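call fold(seq) -> tokens
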Amino acid sequence: MEFSHIPVLFSQCMEGLRIDPAGTYIDGTAGGGGHSAGIARQLTTGRLIALDKDPDAVAAAGERLAGLPAQVVQSDFAEIPRVLDRLGIGQVDGILLDLGVSSHQLDTPERGFSYMADAPLDMRMSQQGASAYDLVNSWDVSAMARVLREFGEEKYALPIAKKICRAREEKPVETTGELVELIKAAIPPSARYEGGHPAKRSFQAIRIAVNSELDSLSRCLDTAFARLAPGGRFAVITFHSLEDRMVKQKFAAYCKGCICPPDFPVCVCGHAPEGKLVNKKPIEPSPEEQRENSRSRSAKLRVLEKL
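ret:
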């Protein structure tokens, strides 16, 4: 299967994970297998478990990783502990997440992720469950506005929600093209192209809601860290501020030491930090990478090491 996806911040991820040839690693977002292959090629007696909830990605990664010490599993990365339990693996030496939508998903119109092509509203990474069509045609105005505002940081969330709900009274919103036109019509002409395509933020918000992306990320950050061996590293690439803020805050919590009130003369809580940041500031793509791969421009890599 052809699954085009250029791995973002590739060398920085490999360096951040500090691959041990005998180690066990998880790529929680296998995609086209770019990062996975980079990890697996450095292993000798080690093992890579590559996860993805998109069946297209699972098939593509399986082909790309054939002959390498890797196993591909269809699963949401929020289920990493369950996958490890099922495989009889206790601890791992590194975990990688490359968040967001893949180039393959964006460039396959019938998947319904892109606002650049007219296609059925879908946006399901797993190709199962409620689709964008289902949610866009069932949310009431307040629920839709909340999703657009919270997940897309869209300042015209309420006018867009009202426009969509009025249009639904005539007929369901069935395609990405119809949705784009409704969004554009709800935004004042002078503001339509502030910060890129007028539908960019709304499509991001709907996609996040369809795939429960922030919930999955929160669950993964809360539970997968416990499965890292001491010295193991957790590397996460984010593409928008909501993801990055969550990763930054969760990583900071693992690095926090004493939690006694500041007026206590000595520590009595005994709380010790569980991790340390490998890089205090997020790693961003070089100007060269941004020129070669425009979709890398908003990427940020954060790496946490378990103490």
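The mean pLDDT is 95.
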